[in-house]
Specification:
This protein is an alpha+beta fold and about 550 residues long. The protein contains 21 helices and 14 strands. Strands 5-4-6-3-7 form a five-stranded antiparallel β-sheet.
């Protein structure tokens, strides 16, 4: 054991990666809806390994933290700037109320309990599960006019309070939002979600996580006989079905297979390859003629791709409008917004940066993508010039500081990287000719970058963790509970009675404002619906930015 400890002290990079591997292993621990997760798992692993007294250079932590913050801004940029628009004003106000209340709750409770600056920062970070606050607060502490010993003590106290209050913050909100909040509002969450689905979608959805054995879209062949379709063009037929959209993919006319043209006239005996959703097949195509088996007609290549919405003609439009104008030959399977699958219907409003998971023939997909955005083609190459210069420029801007009410505020280099990531992520959603970061690389920057940073923090704080926990005392559990719940209780009443937000969307917005994805999943399970996700994305984007910015703010307030 002594030999292993000596090796890890001489080669701290091995200790960091050991914490990462063990952290992802510990992160699989699950109780009900609560999952420990790789970030907290890596922190615990780092704290254990840190008992060996392994020094980790600060530059290692900063590099991984900057990559993580840039990736965070890049992901949420489009939704963050959308949140500043008028139609998202209620959710913006709600997020501000929750985040500001969280800041002052952490500040006053820390003053009441006599906590130092590091403990207060960790308390706020853990209670609101915002790991990025650890980094911004640490950088702010380094700038304080105090001794290096005091700085180190404060920085090491951050993960102590964070580790305890993270567990409290996550579990309390996972319990409060789906279980207690509906009782306070006197609502039946499941019934309200069903009514909202009926209003928006026209029917109820299946249980979350359960997928039909059938494809949502179906492709069948019908021989046209004795129907009102005879003599109509393909364009007229596709617009005539009241039950929903249909796509005529191919036509067999007198033994010849023809590619469809919008002006092609359908005649008696023609066999049509028709794509439509399952319910449309049953309710809208019952009397057009006999269904036939024609493998040759139905056997043609179909691509599954993502179309990213960037064009002005598509942003802010209803999904039905896009389908009618640009959707010829295109089948929509999913709508993804800020990484979250959204429920959708024909009246869903499309935003810039939304991702449509679609299928169809190559030329139809390319035509539609050119009109409303761009095809997000798979690639393994990241634009590292875009990433590196973004972090450099943002970091330089983050060095600037201003004084507000006597408090010196600065973004720090890491905060600057976050802001530049926001701007460049938004810019790429509008001009997708540069700055490509594949999902796999983004996951490395995001999840692995943060986990490595947290692991290094845990290793550095390890030697003083036990003593720090003894000094803080178990009272921090109750303090963490207050800081976690109070902002959400206030947000609940403000959102429901002042902002008049639909309760289902309100609870989803609160999980977003608290940057608590686990709570969103618990809400969806409790509601038996994906509807809470409608309120999640904008508050999540804004909440991430505000809570990250609270790092230097709470340090300045406490100091």
């Amino acid at each position: 054991m002594t030999a292993i400890a000596d090796i890890l002290r001489q080669h701290p990079e091995l200790a960091v990666f050991l914490a990462l591997g063990l952290g992802f292993l510990f992160g699989r621990f699950k109780v009900g809806n609560f999952v420990l997760g790789p970030v907290l798992g890596t922190l615990f692993a780092g704290l254990v390994i840190g008992q060996l007294g392994i020094p980790v250079p600060n530059i290692v932590k900063v590099i991984f933290f900057d990559l993580f913050l840039f990736a965070t801004g890049y992901k949420v940029g489009p939704q963050f700037f959308r949140g500043l628009r008028k139609d998202a004003l209620p959710q913006l106000i709600l997020t501000l109320v929750i985040c500001v209340t969280a800041l002052f709750a952490a500040y006053f409770m820390s003053k009441l309990m006599g906590y130092d600056t590091g403990t207060a920062a960790g308390l706020l970070a853990g209670a609101f599960t915002e790991s990025t606050l650890i980094g911004t607060a640490s950088e702010a502490i380094i700038q304080l006019p105090i001794s290096d010993v005091e700085k180190l003590q404060m920085i090491n106290n951050i993960p102590v309070s964070y580790a305890v209050t993270y567990l409290v913050g996550t579990t309390s909100i996972v319990w409060f939002l789906p279980q207690i909040a509906p009782l306070i509002l006197r609502i039946d969450l499941r019934e309200l979600s069903r009514k909202l689905e009926v209003k928006l979608l026209g029917n109820s959805s299946s249980e979350p996580g359960v997928t039909s054995a059938f494809d949502d879209w179906d492709l069948r062949a019908f021989r046209i006989s004795g129907t009102k379709w005879e003599g109509l063009t393909i364009r007229e037929i596709e617009k005539s079905v009241e039950a929903g959209r249909i796509l005529i993919e191919r036509v067999r006319h007198q033994s010849r297979i023809l590619e469809p043209d919008p002006e092609m006239v359908i005649k008696e005996g023609d066999i049509l390859a028709i794509a439509a959703r399952q319910n449309v097949m049953i309710n809208g195509l019952a009397d057009i003629g006999a269904e036939v088996f024609d493998r040759e007609l139905l056997d043609f290549p179909r691509q599954y791709v993502n179309i990213v919405i960037t064009k002005k003609v598509a942003a802010g439009k209803l999904l039905i409008e896009l389908g009618e104008k640009y959707g010829q030959g295109v089948m929509l399977y999913k709508l993804i917004r800020s990484g979250v699958e959204m429920p959708f219907d024909l009246g869903t409003i499309i935003n810039r940066g939304d991702i449509l998971q679609v299928a169809g023939r190559k030329h139809d997909l390319e035509r539609a993508a050119k009109q409303i955005g761009y095809l997000d083609r798979p690639t393994s190459v990241s634009d590292m010039m875009f990433v590196s210069l973004g972090i450099v420029i943002g970091g330089l801007a983050g060095l600037l500081s201003v004084k507000l009410f006597g408090i010196s505020l600065t973004l720090t280099t890491s905060g600057g990287a976050l802001v530049m990531g926001l701007f460049l992520g938004w810019l790429r959603s509008r001009r997708p000719t540069f700055g490509k970061i594949p999902d796999a690389a983004l996951w490395i920057f995001d999840t692995v970058g943060l986990s490595l940073f947290i692991g290094a923090v845990g290793i550095s704080a390890g030697p003083g963790f036990i003593n720090g926990l003894k000094e803080t005392g178990f009272a921090i559990i109750g303090v963490g509970l207050v800081v976690s719940l109070l902002p959400h209780i206030i947000g609940l009443f403000v959102g429901c009675y002042l902002l008049k937000i639909n309760p289902v969307i309100l609870l989803g917005a609160q999980s977003g404002a608290g940057t608590n994805t686990t709570a969103l999943k618990a809400l969806q399970d409790r509601a038996g619906s994906k509807m809470p996700a409608l309120g999640y994305t904008v508050p999540y984007a804004i909440g991430n930015i505000i809570l990250t910015a609270w790092g230097p703010v709470i340090v300045s307030m406490m100091s």
